[in-house]
Task: structure prediction
Amino acid sequence: MSLQEYEPTAPGGGARLLTGVGAGLVSGLAVGGLMAWQGLIESHGAYGWAIFAAYATVTGGLLGAIVGRRPYGTAVSASGGLLLGLLGWVVWWPTVDPLLRSTTLTWSIAAARDAYPELVGSLLQGALAGTLYHLGTTLLPVRVGARRPPKIRAARPPAALVVIVGGGFGGVSAARRFERLNLRSDRFAVTLISDSNFLLFTPMLAEVASGGLEAQHISSPVRAAVTHTRFRHGRVTHIDIARRLVHLEGPGESVPYDHLVLAVGSVPHFLDLPGVAEHAFTLKSLADAARLRDQVLTMLERADQETDPRERARLLTFVVAGGGFAGTEAVAELYDLTHGVLHFYPGIDPDEPRFVLVHSGKRILPELSERLGDYALGKLRARGIEFRLGVRVSSAGDREVTLNDGEVISTATFVWAAGNRPNPLLRSLPGERGRGGSVPVDRTLRAFELEDVWAIGDCAHIPGPDGAPYPPTAQHAIREGKAVADNIAAVLKGRRPRPFRFTTLGIFVALGHRTAAGEIRGRPFSGLTAWLLWRGIYLAKLPGLERRVRVLLDWALELVFPRDIVVTGTQTTTPLTTRGPQ
Result:
């Protein structure tokens, strides 16, 4: 049997402990000698020297017990020693040492200043001990392992090929969960495919459209979010269920899978209404938000110079279709944007801009209680926003929007937030489709009639405990991503997957003017309190500390400086008419 068939033996617990003690003692003598030479521990005399050497030895022993069998590198071991040095200083010099010397224990700045030399020495000693420990454990297995019978390396099963299509909340959440499962010795080779290379925090898109936030600050690179997942930036054209292949745009581009997770989200659904797809602005992407903001500012620029009263009124009329969360937040943010920059346009009277919200229901925000919906309606009406309730948009043109009751609203800016449907990619899949073309799944998130295919998020019809489908919200998609990864792992181990269960934690809607409305576990909030909760919760949910700091700075700057009126686009008076497959 060749040496290649053996696995080297790592040092055992006793060997690691001795290595750590030795590293601590050597580093303690070295650093202690340096401190004594510089006169930094003379105040304690021989007692201080002995205490420092003893505590350095203990630090080394803890290092050997904590860092593990095989440290990842010198930096990891040195950082661990540095942290232990800091903790050792906190426990000993400001706390235990005064008690042993029968002096008063005072956690004060003066006491910490008196022990500052020991702090510097402790940090230096800990870092040096970590470095020596890493060097010792790197060389030790060669000597210790030779005394033990060699282990035969067991054959590892091949990794299961998991492909996730979609880089939204659900897809990224599933990839993160698979990465954690891999740390638990599970075997997954995960590929995440998305046509955008960033994770977009969609609940804040309306603020980007109003200029309150920078577009890049609510997006995070997918590669940074899932560093141990293979990422493919591309568009999936179709899925071959029989051959278990995901085909990407481009000749010969395909990715095989053992298990497929569909998290492709949704796209705007214009209900086949005449002219709506061609003339409506949407709010589903960063490009949509930037385009809508440029459109509003361009209309203000044109209206400031327009002399025809009818044309001026058309340019300053903004119509939003949809009274749910997206539509309500859109009309509120557009109102704030317009009135927040009107001082730059002295030719426009503050009463001229007109905002109209069209909603087919009898009240807006049906996701909230009737009380909160009435509160939101009253707040927005008090600002002058008009509402058309119980009617629908029947058609749209480049100069007007027509409602099904016959009313024609002359406008140059029409925002559609009245409907979404699952991504058209799902049409290529065999089997029956759910509502709007979604993938029907059982309560474990496994697709019906599709072997080893799972679906989560907006593109899936997921039944809840009461039979009603779960809502397509970010908080649900994140939990569904974790659940689908756990269920795939269970299936591969021959266990039964668990049904997905989740109860909505809370929902909030921003109403502009530092007001909001929402619920947490059924408890209603409104006004400034709800607005502060809304901002705090969304800030905490942003991916990454950097993004949270940037958004927090944007909000702080908004309180001091006016919103920017720079128009960045080149074609801002009409929406995109080509949005891919619908």
Q: What stands out?
A: The two ends are 62 Å apart (CA to CA). Residues 1-11, 141-149, 576-582 have pLDDT under 50 and may be disordered. The first strand starts at residue 6 and ends at 7. The longest helix spans residues 116-144.
